[in-house]
Amino acid sequence: ALTRTRSHAHTHTHIHTGMRSHTHTHTHTYIHTHAHTRTYKHAHAHTHIHICAHKRTRTHTHTHAHPYT
């Protein structure tokens, strides 16, 4: 059984300057985990962190599990 763990971290920062000062910071953390066993299992973990200045902090966490039998 082979187990490989890959972690990818992507950070995107978008700064929009218009009539009003608006700073938009978007942080995207992508964690990809591969679990290779007798029963091909595929696990995807997506963590979405959305931070807007002068606004509420939104945190989205998506976890997808794809078991291949």
UniProtKB/TrEMBL annotation:
Swiss-Prot/TrEMBL keywords: Integrin
GO terms under biological process: integrin-mediated signaling pathway
Region feature (Disordered): 1-23
Protein name: Putative integrin beta-like 1
Species name: Rhipicephalus pulchellus
